[in-house]
Amino acid sequence: MNADEFPSIPRQQLETALERLSYYPGVVLLGPRQVGKTTLARAIAAQSPGTVFLDMERASDRAQLQDVEAFFAAQKNNLLVLDEVQALPGIFEALRPQIDAARQPGRLLLLGSASGKLLRQSAESLAGRVSYLELAPLLAQELPDVASALGGSSPGEAALLGLQRLMLRGGFPLAYTASSDARSMQWRQDMIQTFLQRDLPQLGVTIAATTLHRVWRMLAHNHGQVFNAAQIGQALGGVAHTTITRYLDLFVDAMMLRRLQPLHANLGKRLVKSPKAYVRDTGLLHALLGISSVAQLQGHPVVGASWEGMVVEHVAAAAPTGSEVNFYRTAAGAEIDVVLTMGDKRLGFEAKFSSAPKPARGFWQSSEDIGLQHSYLVAPVRQAYPIGPKASVIPLTDVARVCRGQA
């Protein structure tokens, strides 16, 4: 399948974005570059005639905002989409009086590629005026070939080809829809170089691209493990642990890495207190590790951790507003990969890259320790089935459903 055969991928955040624009004056859509934010914005614009698009990396578009008040007056009845807003840091302060002067819903859609910096900037100026929405790389349930493979009627191995493609290539649309694995790999390698050599410097990062590439590759080798800055620094030739932590912060802010914090529960047990670090897109993870085919991935030691990262991202993408996503691990070895806390309700998710997954003892112990309402083994299987009164095996496409209470 190439891009021409798959020209449009409906995103599950479309409905959420439209709903929030019907209430809030503005929505800030966050996501890494090339994840599909502009495509989603155009789908929103299709339902809002007269929408005006401006790209803040384009001088001619920035010039139109020199007199923000006059521009807003001229476009008072149109949705205004500002792309790559991190390129114009002062825009948030300039937008605040315009929103307050006519506090009507659906005036602004702001697209940005640096979550930490954008959130800090917008929180100072647009607090209470905008809603934040994150667009993740493509999810299993958004892809017809994957969704039909899991829970469908086609047989065995052939039914999981779409899932294998997603796992290998990751969820950036151009990487996923490339005409071959080789072209997908080339796209991802080019993206890595562009991100390090252009995107990070535009965010004010002055660290050499070669240094950050080495750090990113080292983090990829430690994908899904408890983050140990001192150990990584030593492996890189004696870099201080504080410097390694600062590098991690850069990748987290740019939405390329996820820092998953441990669940701190008062259980009278010794708990792991350091976070885990994941490369958020499996396609980029495999490009950093030089894994270019499904066969190579299946025989690589990272395959289990790669699947775990996919599960983490699917849970995080489906987590309701106000919920918390953590992991749980005790010093004695009881562990569950993802814990989703929604008020007084907790769900647990354990990733198992097996067509016949079997829970470890720590799975049951963790479920008891933290009082999980239900525990799930997420595996490359076609159908969900129970393995206990409060435990089930589910395919990846069911993660969103159970997170939203649709089990």
Averaged pLDDT: 88
Report the count of strand segments. 13
Main beta sheet:
6 strands, mixed
Total tally of structural domains: 2
From the N-terminal CA to the C-terminal CA, the straight-line distance is 32 Å
Provide the helix percentage: 40-55%
Strand percentage, roughly?
15-25%
What characteristic shape results from the CA principal axes?
globular
Structural class from helices and strands? alpha/beta
Question: Which strand order do you get reading across the main beta sheet?
Answer: 8-9-10-11-13-12
Spans of at least 5 consecutive residues whose pLDDT stays below 50 are 1-7, 151-156
Number of helices: 18
Q: Radius of gyration in whole Å, from Cα? A: 22 Å
Description:
The chain is an alpha/beta fold and 407 residues long. The chain has 2 domains: 122 residues, P-loop containing nucleotide triphosphate hydrolases (Rossmann fold); 264 residues, no CATH class. The protein has 18 helices and 13 strands. Strand 8 and strand 9 form a beta hairpin. Helix 8 crosses helix 14, helix 11 packs across helix 14 and helix 12 crosses helix 13. The chain is globular, with a radius of gyration of 22 Å.
